[in-house]
Specification:
ATP binding, about 45% helix, 2 domains, Rossmann fold, ATP-binding, about 475 residues, ATP hydrolysis activity, single chain
């Protein structure tokens, strides 16, 4: 009797949340036949690689070497062979699906059926600029399965948290009892994702947020159990993910789950192709000097002449908040570092900016050190988001891009640091004090990627890409 009551309640609940599959914020929930444009996601019909060869990654890679689009790289070729293995296994792959409600019935009856025959994915890590994202995108374009999604990992987690919030709002509580009614929203969220994407390709797999770290084990366990195959790029090996993070002990089990379901491959040729390709073509869009405003004004004036609008303030509405910028002209924003990085903006805000504008000007970027740790973290997130969405970038700065971040031995206690230590009951010298929220280790590591991306974002080739993503 009790079991029947539970089944009736959960049946009503699961059917009520099916509408989340079309939740607008989660645009990675769609078939590959739909072109997804402004968030840096790619699709089979929005193919930026323009592949005219067969569907094999090896064949396409070799063709690109022959045409001069790529330089032959033995380290990349080893990765391509691993991607070819996965591509072959994905050709006829289709995970077993039984629907949300039936899956819950199986769990209640202790018969939770897992997709044990899923192909093993691939986790590709290595130094910045080595071609990890390029190779993953090449594989993604070659893989012709019915449901697939390519997304920046940070954007994916934003969507996951938004969907968790939406699921919780739909939970019907039993107010006739005072007993604790535990509910884990990860299960329905993971199953909705799995229904819409059999292959998930994550760019820049990194974990810096404790809220992300605490749910990854449960989330990915459910995704893998539902037959989802994961391909990811990262600058860190799995064992270094969330290194020195708060409560990392709760995160560590996820690492083994990732290793069990993904082949771990290192790409480290010692070459940063972004830096090499941009060496002789930088300077036009990254401006330094005593009076950079004059040069930036000229660029902004030229960009405005190509827009059907006037220069004016504009307010963006982001999750119920209004964020105002003073100088907007059409799809060009002329902002200061203070406007973009001093204010408490986050990844969702920068994602909205990437949707609204095709060109972003950032004036007065200072040298960044640990005293500006919060601003440095926002700047890194901003550049990652703009790069992933191929947004054109103009910067005026106090130093060249490779000298913007200045690590220092910050041993002083700022008021902000003292308050955080008090809130977390952390003493100086303890293990938790060595967490990256105090040392800035994660920012130091991530800034190498930022420097590499800033270099590429100054090239003519990068500036010509944005039209293909619109």
């Amino acid at each position: 009797m009790l079991l029947n009551k539970k089944i009736e309640k959960m049946a009503s609940y699961y059917y009520s949340i099916k509408k989340l599959g079309s939740y607008n914020y989660n645009i990675w929930f769609s078939k590959t036949k739909q072109i997804i444009n402004s968030r840096g996601y790619t699709d089979i019909n929005a193919n930026v690689l323009h592949i005219h060869m067969g569907n094999d990654p090896i064949e396409v890679y070799r063709h690109k070497i022959t045409t001069g689009d790529l330089t032959e790289d033995e380290y990349q070729m080893k990765v391509v062979h691993s991607l070819q293995r996965l591509h072959n296994e994905m050709i006829n792959y289709k995970p077993e699906k039984s629907g949300l409600f039936l899956k819950w019935i199986e769990r209640v009856g202790g018969k939770n059926k897992k997709n044990t025959m899923s192909p093993k994915g691939l986790y590709l890590y290595g130094a910045v600029g080595g071609g990890k994202t390029m190779l993953m995108d090449l594989f993604y374009d070659c893989c012709k399965i019915e449901y697939k999604q390519r997304v920046h990992f940070n954007s994916f987690m934003l969507d996951v948290h938004a969907k968790i919030h939406e699921v919780k709002k739909n939970v019907k509580r039993d107010y006739s009892t005072t007993k604790l009614q535990p509910f884990d929203p990860i299960l329905p969220v993971a199953e909705i994702i799995a229904q819409k994407a059999w292959l998930l390709c994550f760019d820049e797999f990194q974990v810096t947020d404790v809220a992300d770290a605490m749910i990854l084990k449960r989330l990915f366990t459910q995704l893998f159990d539902n037959g989802v195959v994961v391909v990811a790029t990262s600058n860190r090996p799995p064992d270094d993910l969330y290194k020195n993070g708060l409560q990392r002990g709760n995160f560590v089990p996820f690492i083994q789950i990732l290793k069990d379901h993904c082949q771990i491959v290192c790409l480290n040729s010692g070459v940063d192709y972004r830096m090499r390709d941009g060496t002789d073509r930088q300077g036009t869009y990254f401006i330094i000097g005593r009076d950079p405003d004059n040069s930036v004004d000229k660029i902004f004036k030229y960009l405005c002449s190509r827009e059907n609008d006037i220069v004016r303030p504009k307010t963006l509405s982001i999750k119920g908040r209004n964020v105002t910028f003073k100088r907007i002209c059409g799809q060009v924003i002329d902002a200061t570092f203070e406007e973009l990085c001093d204010r408490p903006l986050g990844a969702s805000d920068y994602l909205e900016i990437s949707q609204a504008f095709h060109t972003v000007i950032i004036r007065d970027v200072p040298k960044l050190n640990m005293r500006l740790k919060s601003q440095a973290r926002r700047f890194i997130t901003l550049i990652d988001t703009l790069y992933d969405n191929k947004i054109r970038l103009v910067i005026s700065a106090a130093a060249p891009h490779n000298k913007l971040f200045v690590p220092d031995n910050d041993t002083e206690y700022t008021d902000e640091k003292r308050m955080l230590m008090d809130d977390l009951a952390i003493s100086h010298g303890s293990d938790n004090y060595k967490s990256n929220i105090f040392t800035g280790e994660e920012e130091l590591f991530a800034f190498d990627r930022t420097v590499s991306r800033l270099s590429e974002m100054q090239t003519k080739e990068y500036w010509e890409q944005w039209e293909q993503y619109r």
